[in-house]
Automatic annotation (TrEMBL):
Protein's name according to its UniProt entry: SHS2 domain-containing protein
Domain SHS2: 12-179
Signal peptide: none
Organism: Candidatus Falkowbacteria bacterium HGW-Falkowbacteria-2
GO BP field: cell division
Domain of life: Bacteria
Pfam families, alphabetized: PilM_2 (PF11104)
CDD domains named among the record's database cross-references: ASKHA_NBD_PilM (cd24049)
Amino acid sequence: MGLFSSSDDNLYLGIDIGDSSLKMVELRQKNKKIHLSNYAFSENVSGVNFTKIEDINYLAQAILKVRAEAGIKARRVTASLPTFSVFSSIITVPPTEKKNMDAVVSEEAKKVIPLPLEEMILDWKPVPDSSGTDNKDGMRVFLTGSPKKLVRRYIEIFRLAKLELASLETETFSLVRALIGNDLSTVMIVEIGANSTDLSVVQESIPVLNRSLEVCGASITAALAEKLGLSFVQAEQFKIDLSASLTDKSPEELPQLILKTMAPVIHEIEYMREFFQGNAKGKKIEKIILSGGGAMMVNLADYISKRLDLQVIIGDPFSRLTYPDEMKPIIDEVGPKLAVAAGLALREIS
C-alpha cells in the first residue's frame, strides 16, 4: 500500500535495475510539492545479475512482481542504464556555430568511442568553464554514448512488464539529481553498491571525473563470512544488522576488518581528490556524499571525514520530498540504497 492514497495522475516512477536488486521509487506531485508516494526494493543474493541476465522475460516478471507486491500504481517509468555499459568522456570540440554542434560532437566522438557511431546513441552537455573566460581552443563537452542494442533491450523489457518507458538515464545523472539538486559546488559522490563502487567528481552538476571499482558491498559480506564462518546469505544479514551486533561481537576487530576491505575505495577517493584538484585551476572538492547500500556501515562517513579532513555526509535522496514524519526512521535507513531510483523518478518532474 502506498504512503499516500492517490490516483494514477501525477505519479512518477523510477526503476533502478541494479546488479543484484530492483529498486523502485514512486513520487506524486501536488500543489507544487513532491510527495513520496511509495517505494520498493527486492534484494537478491541468489547470484542472479539483473543487469547481465539474458532472459529478459525473467527480468520483466521480476519487475512486475515487485511493483505489484508494493502496490505501485504508476505505469510511466524512467529507468537506469548500468554505468559499465554506457561510455562517457569529456571532450573538447573546436569553436563552431551552435547549429553545427551535433555534427562537430559526432566527429570528435569517433576519436574516443571504440564502437561504430551508428551502433550508439549519443548525448552531450557543455561543461561550464569555471574560469569565466572564453576558451579559444574550443568548448568542453560531457559526452555519453549508449549502445542501441542495450536501449532496444530495455525497451523490450518494459514492454513485457506492461509499463511505459518514458526515458533511460545513466545512474550518475540520477544520483546528481537526487543528492545534489541545484547545488553548484564541487562534490564527490561515492556510490557503494552490491557489486561495484562508483566514484564521480561532480562540478556544477556535471560529472567530470568517473571511476568504478570492484570492491563493494559483496566484498564486505565475503570478508565477514570468512571471518565468522557464516554462509554468504547469513553474512549479508549480519552486515545489515551490524550496528546492533557490534556489542555482542568484537567491537574493534570487525570494524577494522570492514575498513581493511574498503581500503582500496578510500585510497581511490584520495587519489581522485588529488588528481582533480591538481588539474582544476584552483577548484577543490568541497564535500563527499556517500550513497548506496554500503554507505551507512560502521561509521564509514566519520572515518573518511577524519582521514581526509573533509566533510563527508550520507546522501539523503528524500530531503526535498514530503512524507509522514513517522516514516523518517525507516526513510533514513533505506534512503541511501534508493538514491538512483529517486533521481530517476525526479527526472520527469524536474
